[in-house]
């Protein structure tokens, strides 16, 4: 019976969509395995940091890592509340965002403000946006958008339910690009411990059944 602690690092979205669904079955099937999960929006060198596994975006994986795709490509979205759009005309092109209040996102090791990226018919546009809030917390960003603070830009999956029930309105959908989805990563050339293999198998099985 596998036993021991498995240290895993992943972005919040991956924890919510990929790790949370396996927690109960993992605990029941492998009662002697402890999954130790750390949140990091941009996991770095997992071996140096002492992690056994990481979930990363497909475009950020080092070549010396084993990479297992867990989800397909995801799409970005720009959304605002109905109340916000009562006072502001919806943007038609990314350049219209210069006239809007936008919720800024701190990203990367330096915590710099993320520049909103768009693409349509082979034309790429990158916008520096301004507003009354900037943060690295995606839940706060979404809450602020729901409250009418400004426009939110992020992964569509996070806002899908609020778009479906009308609490947020999506704009610039035809300008929203897609990116490689999440991959499970671990060091190559090293045999996985039984506890780590149990977590890997659970994540792969969940991805197949999603």
TrEMBL record:
<dbReference type="Pfam" id="PF03466">
    <property type="entry name" value="LysR_substrate"/>
</dbReference>
<comment type="similarity">
    <text>Belongs to the LysR transcriptional regulatory family.</text>
</comment>
<dbReference type="InterPro" id="IPR058163">
    <property type="entry name" value="LysR-type_TF_proteobact-type"/>
</dbReference>
<protein>
    <recommendedName>
        <fullName>LysR substrate-binding domain-containing protein</fullName>
    </recommendedName>
</protein>
<feature type="domain" description="LysR substrate-binding">
    <location>
        <begin position="2"/>
        <end position="207"/>
    </location>
</feature>
<dbReference type="InterPro" id="IPR005119">
    <property type="entry name" value="LysR_subst-bd"/>
</dbReference>
């Amino acid at each position: 019976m596998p036993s021991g602690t498995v240290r895993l690092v992943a972005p919040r979205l991956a924890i919510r969509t990929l790790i949370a669904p396996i927690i109960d079955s993992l605990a029941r099937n492998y009662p002697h395995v402890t999954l130790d999960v750390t949140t990091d929006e941009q996991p770095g060198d997992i071996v140096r940091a002492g992690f056994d596994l990481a979930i990363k975006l497909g475009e950020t994986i080092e070549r010396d890592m084993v990479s297992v795709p867990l989800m397909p490509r995801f799409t970005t979205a720009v959304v605002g509340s109905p109340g916000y759009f009562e006072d502001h005309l919806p943007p038609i092109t990314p350049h219209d965002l210069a006239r809007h209040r936008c919720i800024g996102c701190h990203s990367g090791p330096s915590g710099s403000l993320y520049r909103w990226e768009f693409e349509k018919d082979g034309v790429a546009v990158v916008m520096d946006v301004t507003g009354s809030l900037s943060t690295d917390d995606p839940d706060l960003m979404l809450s602020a958008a729901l409250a009418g603070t400004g426009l939110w830009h992020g992964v569509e999956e996070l806002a899908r339910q609020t778009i479906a029930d009308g609490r947020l309105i999506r704009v610039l959908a035809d300008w929203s690009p897609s990116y490689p989805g999440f991959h499970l990563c671990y060091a190559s050339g090293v045999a996985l411990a039984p506890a780590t293999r149990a977590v890997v198998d659970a994540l792969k099985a969940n991805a197949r059944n999603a």
